[in-house]
Amino acid sequence: MGRLVVIEGLDGAGKRTLAARLTAELSAAGGTVCSTAFPRYDDDVHAELARDALYGRMGDLASSVHAMAVLFALDRRAAIPALRTDLATHDVVLVDRYVASNAAYNAARLGQDAHGEVVEWVRALEVERFDLPVPDHQLLLAPPREVAAERARARELTEPGRERDAYESDDALQARTDAVYRQLAGAGWLSPWTVVDGSGPDPAPALARLLLDGPG
């Protein structure tokens, strides 16, 4: 059985870049690796509805924290068979955003921290009720918040179809979400975490060794 490794972080943190670097390093070390990303906006109707809500196309749906959380959770629930197949056939399954995203963003929307009721509600919904595979390790990609925000703004200008949604364009929400992410990592929520701040050399080689050989 392979290891489920999740990359979390704010919009613009560089999750896709880290996933690509890790894939290359894991493959070079002889590991088999596959990757996926949530929300699956183009592949799941729940994620599609959530995207429409975030761009103001679903009335007041986006105003409901719990309704949005359920849509994102149902997207992951629908992916369980594929995730389990990937875990049975690969050494590492890399996931860009997972349950912790739901916990962090919705706690931030409600003004709660990592110990608030919505974090436990998300865990109970996705892990206990939906029986999602639990991560073996989570990576928090945490550059300075201003760096992530600037990357997100630049991406909006240079990549067609990447206009920032209601969450991405809310700087105050991003700041609160960053704080909750760091609390979740510090508490070891659902699994061991490694925090990568992006200030040092390329972390992918060391992370690949950890993920293939290290504990947690």
SSE arrangement:
Blueprint lengths: L2 E6 L6 H14 L4 E5 L7 H10 L10 H14 L1 H10 L2 E5 L2 H11 L7 H13 L7 E5 L3 H14 L12 H17 L5 E4 L7 H10 L3
Parallel strand pairs: 1-3, 1-4, 2-3, 4-5
Keywords:
9 helices; five-stranded parallel sheet; 216 residues; Rossmann fold; 52% helix; 12% strand; alpha/beta
Could you characterize the architecture of this molecule?
This protein is an alpha/beta fold. It has a single domain, classed as 3-Layer(aba) Sandwich (Rossmann fold), CATH 3.40.50.300. Helices cover 52% and strands 12% of the residues. The protein has nine helices and five strands. Strands 2-3-1-4-5 form a five-stranded parallel β-sheet, with helices on both faces. Helix 1 packs across helix 9, helix 5 runs antiparallel to helix 6 and helix 5 crosses helix 8. The longest helix has 17 residues. The protein is globular and about 50 Å long. The two termini are 14 Å apart. The mean pLDDT is 90.
| Main sheet makeup | 5 strands, parallel
| Strand order across the largest sheet | 2-3-1-4-5
Morphology call? globular
Question: Span from first to last CA?
Answer: 14 Å
Gyration radius from CA atoms, angstroms: 16 Å
Structural class: alpha/beta
| Averaged pLDDT | 90
The counted number of beta strands is 5
Provide a quick synopsis of the model.
The protein is an alpha/beta fold and 216 residues long. Helix content is 52%, strand content 12%.
